[in-house]
Amino acid sequence: MTGESHNNVVKKEERTLLMALGAVVVLTAILAVAGFLFLSPPDEIIEGEADATSVRISGKLPGRVERFYVREGDRVKTGDTLVHIHSSIVEAKLLQAEAMQTAADAQNRKVDAGTRVQVIQSAYELWQQAIAAKEIARKTYDRMESLFAQSVVSAQKRDEALAAFQAADASEKAAHSQYQLAREGAQKEDRTSAEAMATAARGGVLEVQSVLDDSYLTAPCDGEIDVIYPQEGELVAMGTPIMNLLRLEDKWITFNVREELLKDFSMGKDIRVTVPALGGVETDARIYYIRDMGNYAVWRATKATGEWDSRTFKVKARPVDSIAGLRPGMTVLYHQPTR
Q1: What total of structural domains would you count in the chain?
Q2: What's the confidence (pLDDT) of residue 147?
Q3: Is residue 297 situated within a structural domain?
Q4: 236 within 8 A of 230, measured Cβ to Cβ
Q5: Among 70, 215, 232, 283, which residue has the fewest nearby CB atoms (within 10 Å)?
């Protein structure tokens, strides 16, 4: 091959290479323009968490955990017995309160029964004696009055007989009053006081019994035992949490959303969410709660100009349809479009 022919071949290859490079540059530019015009940026992913109502089980009875009737993870129905707490101190107080009630009831019955028959009979006999003494004093005075009119006795003797009659009359009236009191029994005030004491004693028994009613704690609703705090044999104080009960039928999703991303969240709106732990299942959730989380959850601007402090809002939404397998603590994602 001559030198001229070789040069022609080289030039032809160079032109072909330049054309190929130009085509690549043009294609790259076309793709870049198309991507800019037609491709959208990725969605903003807002991460949330599933939650459910948790009911704390505690009682008024201080004592020792005698026995648990459930274990963590058990499903229970309303009214199911959960735990037995034994308190010997409260049981002793119940015995004391019952003894006080017995004594107060006996006193009340005694007051209601009135005075004994023997006391009434004794008062009656004293009254009859006073009547007899009054009658003798009256007759004595009448005789003295007659003799005084005949000037047989002095005025002093007549006055002494009159004084004796008046004294006997007063004694008869006093004896009659005592007899009436014995028949009528206790005074109204005494009866009222006795009834009040009996009522107070019954109230004391009911108070102790109400505390003992908490010796067996029952489930206030249907749910699942989430966590049990003490062990059998441990002492618990009044109001000490014994266990938590999850109401799994009452579930919701919580998102912490920065203020600038809040545009897609409004009360009553349905949003599409994804649960990665359940194989990416998607469902609709309805927003029912939006609230500012406070100053502790504010994103502070780092520049003097061009930026602003962004607050964080807590957003809650309930699944529109039941999601099988959704449990508290699972991650839930919301893909917020950027355009």
Answers
A1: 2
A2: 80
A3: yes
A4: yes
A5: 232
* 327 within domain boundaries: yes
Residue ranges of the chain whose pLDDT lies below 50: 115, 186
- The pLDDT of residue 254 is 95
Residues in the chain: 339
The CATH code of the domain that includes 313 is 2.40.30.170
8 A C-beta contact, residue 283 and residue 276: no
pLDDT at 324: 85
Dist CA 291 CA 12 (whole Å): 72
Q: Per residue, what are the HEC states of 25-41?
A: HHHHHHHHHHHHHHCCC
Structure tokens at 302: 């780092």
Predicted TM-score of the model (pTM): 0.53
Does residue 110 come out as left (phi exceeding 0), alpha (psi in the -120 to 50 range) or beta?
alpha
Domain extent, residue 272, equals 44-51+247-336
One-letter-per-residue 3-state SS of the chain: CCHHHHHHHHHHHHHHHHHHHHHHHHHHHHHHHHHHHHCCCCCEEEEEEEEEEEEEEECCCCEEEEEECCCCCCEECCCCEEEEEECHHHHHHHHHHHHHHHHHHHHHHHHHHCCCHHHHHHHHHHHHHHHHHHHHHHHHHHHHHHHHHCCCCCHHHHHHHHHHHHHHHHHHHHHHHHHHHHHHCCCHHHHHHHHHHHHHHHHHHHHHHHHHHHHEEECCCCEEEEEECCCCCCEECCCCEEEEEEEEEEEEEEEEEEHHHHHHCCCCCEEEEEEHHHCCEEEEEEEEEEEECCHHHEECCCCCCCCCCEEEEEEEEEECCCCCCCCCCCEEEEEECCC
Write down the pLDDT at residue 223: 93
* pLDDT for residue 276: 94
Instruction: Classify residue 161: in a domain, yes or no.
Output: no
What is the model's pLDDT at position 138? 85
185's torsion region: left (phi>0), alpha (psi -120 to 50) or beta? left
Give a yes or no: residue 80 inside a domain.
no
